[in-house]
Amino acid sequence: MENTPAHDPLVIAGRTYHSRLLTGTGKFKDLDETRRATEAAAAEIVTLAIRRTNIGQNPGEPNLLDVLPPDRYTILPNTAGCYTAEDAVRTCRLARELLDGHTLVKLEVLGDQRTLYPDVVQTLKAAELLVADGFDVMVYTSDDPILARQLEQIGCCAVMPLAAPIGSGLGIQNRYTLLEIIENAKVPIIVDAGVGTASDAAIAMELGCDGVLMNTAIAGARDPVLMAGAMRKAVEAGRDAFLAGRIPRKRYASASSPIDGLIG
């Protein structure tokens, strides 16, 4: 019982969550598929791009909040599509107005349209401005341990290093830097971007990440709802494996049934 989700909560900005799988809301064929995949993932935090998603700013159009209501989910507005700190800050302030003072945001400031790799200089600048303005900032960044530490020192409530470029599905490309970030962090570390399948999510959790955020890996699957369920199980299994503690790697095996002490 000690390691069940209820007894191993994820805490972000003072709020407790039982699910360590965070999901995106874009790229699904319609809002119903978004709803069904989110439910299959058992996600409690769902992120949305303020610049691309209607949450009330366009009256008369389908509203994401009708299928993912804020009284059931923590809505995590993000700054996808922003390429400057000023643009990202402006977008977060718009989200706060639309969501009645909501302060939890996902900051991402991009530096390259092809790879969607983060502009770390602009990210640092935006993080400082947003924290000073009272936002709880979960920040998408590169897998640089020094940068992760700086973002934590600024006051970000979660650091979200990429595993690989957004939407690439390549999985974790540099376990060493990710481990460095995890081992030195005092805030949740959530892998964001690059996950392709369930085994990628399990590996991230086995390394000690506090959670995984994904969108394309689910929405782009042949069966998004089925993949969402697979990701939920992978995150749970990876977390359990991390808590259980794996056996050391060895060059050769030791017998499961040793011969020492056998009669005759």
UniProtKB/TrEMBL annotation:
InterPro entries: Aldolase_TIM, Thiazole_synthase_ThiG, ThiG. Pathway: Cofactor biosynthesis; thiamine diphosphate biosynthesis. It comes from the Bacteria. 1-deoxy-D-xylulose 5-phosphate binds at residues 167, 193-194, 215-216. Residues 12-258 form the Thiazole synthase ThiG domain. Gene3D superfamilies: Aldolase class I (3.20.20.70). Pfam families: ThiG. It is an enzyme of class 2 (transferase). Signal peptide: none annotated. It is found in: Cytoplasm. It catalyses: [ThiS sulfur-carrier protein]-C-terminal-Gly-aminoethanethioate + 2-iminoacetate + 1-deoxy-D-xylulose 5-phosphate = [ThiS sulfur-carrier protein]-C-terminal Gly-Gly + 2-[(2R,5Z)-2-carboxy-4-methylthiazol-5(2H)-ylidene]ethyl phosphate + 2 H2O + H(+). Its EC number is 2.8.1.10. The active site is at residue 106. Keywords: Cytoplasm, Schiff base, Thiamine biosynthesis, Transferase. Its main location: cytoplasm. PANTHER family: THIAZOLE SYNTHASE (PTHR34266:SF2). Catalyzes the rearrangement of 1-deoxy-D-xylulose 5-phosphate (DXP) to produce the thiazole phosphate moiety of thiamine. Sulfur is provided by the thiocarboxylate moiety of the carrier protein ThiS. In vitro, sulfur can be provided by H(2)S. Belongs to the ThiG family. Homotetramer. Forms heterodimers with either ThiH or ThiS. This is Thiazole synthase. It comes from Pseudoxanthomonas daejeonensis.
